[in-house]
Amino acid sequence: MAANLLEVKNLQTHFISRGGVVKAVDNVSFTMKPGETLGVVGESGSGKSVTALSVMRLIASPPGKIVGGEINFEGENILDKSLDELTELRGSKISMIFQDPMTSLNPVFTVGYQIAETVKRHRKDVNSDQAWRRAVEMLDLVRIPDAKRRAKSYPHEFSGGMRQRVMIAIALACNPQLLIADEPTTALDVTIQAQVLELMKGLSSEFGTAVMMITHDLGVVAGTCQNVNVMYAGHIVESAPVKQIFEKPAHPYTLGLLQSIPRMDQERGSKLTPIAGQPPDMMHPPKGCPYAARCPKVQSRCLEELPPLISVGRGEQVAACFYPN
Amino acid sequence: MVQQVQTPKETGTTLVEVKGLKVHFPVKGGLLGRTVGHVKAVDGVDMFIRKGETLGLVGESGCGKSTTGRAILQLIKPTSGSVKLDGTELTKASANEIRRKRAEMQMVFQDPFSSLDPRYTIGQIISEPLQNFGRGNAKEVQEQVSHLMETVGLNPYYVNRFAHEFSGGQRQRIGIARALALHPSFVVADEPVSALDVSIQAQVLNLLQDLQSKFGLTYLFVAHNLSVVKHISDRVAVMYLGRVVELADSEKLYETPLHPYTQALLSAIPVPDPEVELRRRRIILEGDVPSPVNPPSGCNFHPRCWKAQAVCREVIPALEEKQPNHYAACHFPG
């Protein structure tokens, strides 16, 4: 078995405000192998984006702070690195794509320049001409028609889907080992989403890039990921290969999520089973299991103790629940 | 008190009839701010909505689905075309007549964060339509407000709180209570659940269905999420670049789409099941939606269509009944 590319151990990222401390990510541990596609799903405020930003060391401080844990990338702890070392790492070995393609490109530079800039920054042996050629090559790779001419265009001359493809081109320009995609298709229409996901799948398998796909859309996870982490209120509540998550969800929250989404391939008429109530107030999280207040299987123990992530006896599937399904 | 009308779905009776609806927005340009062109947001929409049914209106951003919903309610003045509600022509009605008609047609908005006035209490928000239409004295209005709050699953105890004290799902319930205050027969719901988390979405969808069967409401449900639309709609209309390209019973549309755009759109939607995803064949469309300022000639889908022939570039296909109750605007359907 290959060594782990990424090992996150007991990560704790907190946000400190006047009103109190929000434990946005609370004791999260997981690993990723080279070339693996890992889906991270959860609702807003579950801590999925904060986990990704922590791996990139992009948590704005203050108010945010990584207060504990380890993030080992290729065996080295990212949390011990200096700012210079981090700048070296970001964009070359770990890259990130953000949700909003409208605001993540610089409006005053051509897209070709922005891709070339990334290449030059990380490859000392590359001159400007070579970097520009690489930029055109990348645009071609992400299927921007007439790449040579379009490299001289500015971001506002591109549509949303094309801008997201430019972001992918920038992210992949230096052949990173890990690509973190934070809701890469949420701002796009479905037909454009299909184009972008297809492209990402193709490129990651072609270059052997590991992808951490952060999304709230379980459909996207089913179509693109090998393994899935389900997050709820700052914790990973379930982690398993994609097939098991959908076939035999162990955590009541995962099951609740799956039952509350309407599916296009199913007969209509039946009523949805919503999850009752709302996620907990992160300023004052409950003692015990964070899902206890909404859980149909809740027992007195769930209100007292925080369940650890343990095996449910089906291979690699783990769930943080005392009474898994 | 909210009256309870138990109307079965009367198939056949048409409540809303839309013919040749067009909404063009002028584009100003140049030094003198002259009109240099038009955004053809809605460019000839035909549809009808039966009493008691839910018509889903789907399409990608910019296709004109929200503008259609607003133009039907006369919140945007249509450029041309006809909209009839229960036989009354709305496009020719005076401002006063429209005002009176508003009691029968209401709207639920997408964003529960910006569609509620932050300076009003929940009680004031829900009672505003009642007061505007003089429905009862202060005490009666108060009673109606608490009843409405109960109907949508809110505790009337919170009547004096402000919108910001509620979560997204609860705010959407407030918006629904406001829309129902005057007992409308027709409600346009514009993306009512797309701003909500999935676990909350299901709560609001179920509420909308419950209210429909309780009060015999007719819905125009505008959304971009085709799975949600399938779940809630009896019939579905698909829009592309300002026109309805297909309209059929929900089951039929999803099982045997006739228009190539509908086929591509349906194949693009991710299904939350890895087994199904593995077996599916995707139709990946080339390129982007063209600009509605200068739409393509003929069928405006032809530059992206894999079936396009010469005739598609020249002749606009009409929305025709290709199969019983299954309408499509395509020269080569199926």
SSE layout:
The complex is a heterodimer of chains A (325) and B (334).
Chain A: E1 6-17, E2 20-32, E3 37-41, H1 48-55, E4 64-73, E5 76-77, H2 83-89, E6 94-97, H3 111-122, H4 128-141, H5 147-150, H6 160-172, E7 178-182, H7 190-207, E8 210-215, H8 218-224, E9 227-232, E10 235-241, H9 242-247, H10 252-260, H11 300-304, E11 310-311, E12 318-319
Parallel strand pairs in A: 3-8, 3-9, 6-7, 7-8
Antiparallel strand pairs in A: 1-2, 1-4, 4-5, 9-10, 10-12, 11-12
Chain B: E1 14-29, E2 34-50, E3 54-58, H1 65-72, E4 80-85, E5 88-89, H2 95-101, E6 105-108, H3 122-132, H4 138-151, H5 168-180, E7 186-190, H6 198-215, E8 218-223, H7 226-232, E9 235-240, E10 243-249, H8 250-255, H9 260-268, H10 274-279, H11 310-314, E11 320-323, E12 326-328
Parallel strand pairs in B: 3-8, 3-9, 6-7, 7-8
Antiparallel strand pairs in B: 1-2, 1-4, 4-5, 9-10, 10-12, 11-12
Helix pairs in contact in B: 3-4, 3-5, 4-5, 5-6
Structural description of this entry:
- The complex is a heterodimer of chains A (325) and B (334).
- Chain A has 325 residues and is α/β, with parallel strands linked by helices.
- In chain A, 32% of the residues lie in helices and 23% in strands.
- In chain A, the strands form two sheets. An eight-stranded mixed beta sheet of chain A has the order 6-7-8-3-9-10-12-11, sandwiched between helices.
- The mean pLDDT of chain A is 89.
- With 334 residues, chain B is of the alpha/beta class.
- Chain B is 31% helix and 24% strand.
- Chain B has helices at 65-72, 95-101, 122-132, 138-151, 168-180, 198-215, 226-232, 250-255, 260-268, 274-279, 310-314; strands at residues 14-29, 34-50, 54-58, 80-85, 88-89, 105-108, 186-190, 218-223, 235-240, 243-249, 320-323, 326-328.
- In chain B, the strands form two sheets. Chain B has an eight-stranded mixed beta sheet, with helices on both faces. Chain B has a four-stranded antiparallel beta sheet with strand order 2-1-4-5.
- In chain B, β7 (186-190), α6 and β8 form a beta-alpha-beta unit.
- Classes of the chains: A alpha/beta (325), B alpha/beta (334).
- The interface between A and B is large, with 43 and 44 residues.
